[in-house]
Amino acid sequence: MAATNKDDVSTNYDRKSELKAFDDTKEGVKGLVDAGIAEIPRIFYHPPDEYSINNTSDSEEAQFSIPVIDLKGLSDPTKRKEIVADVAEASESWGFFQIVNHGIPVDVLEEIKDGVRGFFEQDTEVKKQLYIRDNYSIPFVYNSNFDLYSAPVTNWRDTFRCNMTPTPKTEDLPEVCREILVEYSNPLMNLGKLLFELLSEALGLELSHLNDIDCNKGLLVIGHYYPACPQPELTIGTSKHADNSFITVLLQDNIGGLQVLQHNMWIDVPPVPGALVLISNDKFKSVEHRVLANHRGPRISVAGFFSTGLLPLTKLYGPIKELLSEDNPPKYRETTLRDYHAYYREKGLDGRSALSYYKL
């Protein structure tokens, strides 16, 4: 996805000034589209990938079956055992899977997507009041590119972040989507607890292990808005990265664009109606993924990040001691989630894994 343009040879390009000018509008990528641009600003040009990674062809992609796990029947011990085995296989081989029959009603899934769209498409002057940079102490923040000034490339998307733990006051949430944020977060928290149970069992641990170490105590709901792009071949919706949460539960709309890196190839994750995508010591992969820019749009996605990185907790996390042995020594040093979250934010989406910083 290399960007080529005659302006690339110019010595007059001041990226920092262009970033600030874009940031100061407080209108994000949507503001550029609303202005009717035909060519994207240079800050959005995406350089060639550091490594040679290509999209799969149709014939190659046919070799890979995106894991879809049906959670129906968990109360039956035999069926639960099968589901846990599927979770283990998908987590070890892929680092992600899609889930159906997860207990969140389809109408709630549709309403949260509508709520995200409604926030970004409301009156610009109202939305601007919530545009904030580098303040993680308040419940709701809207901006474009959390790593705008640190990442090597600007992504073609706008985002809001809502910290749902502890439950925010009603007046701290934007009116256009406050009710559905709460309505969606409650069953999402229940689903997270269930997923941590299944992952604990899949690791051969006690069912309550991951919940007991507070993996389910923090939830961030992230709303992404990817406007239609006039030159999608020059940019990216979201750069290659792995998430900084314990697990991420992702809802995507029918436009698609999500890809995961598997066998050094980018593989499309097709939208499945009513399905949620689950992204998770190297026993289970933390899959690298990205989102392509598209002529179609806007694309809406809603990510539930289970993480306590914004909470004032001092608990240390590292390789699970019950899984370590002489043959399987720890590969990472311990850290607090708050410090890990801060490092991830400072580093930005630069194509490198944040976990590598903590390798022993």
From TrEMBL:
Coiled coil: none annotated. Residues 217-308 form the Fe2OG dioxygenase domain. Keywords: Iron, Metal-binding, Oxidoreductase. Pfam families: 2OG-FeII_Oxy, DIOX_N. It is an enzyme of class 1 (oxidoreductase). Transmembrane segments: none annotated. GO terms for molecular function: desacetoxyvindoline 4-hydroxylase activity; metal ion binding. Its cofactor is Fe cation. Its EC number is 1.14.11.20. Gene3D superfamilies: B-lactam Antibiotic, Isopenicillin N Synthase, Chain. InterPro entries: DIOX_N, IPNS-like_FE2OG_OXY, IPNS-like_sf, Oxoglu/Fe-dep_dioxygenase_dom. PROSITE patterns: FE2OG_OXY (PS51471). This is Putative deacetoxyvindoline 4-hydroxylase. Belongs to the iron/ascorbate-dependent oxidoreductase family.
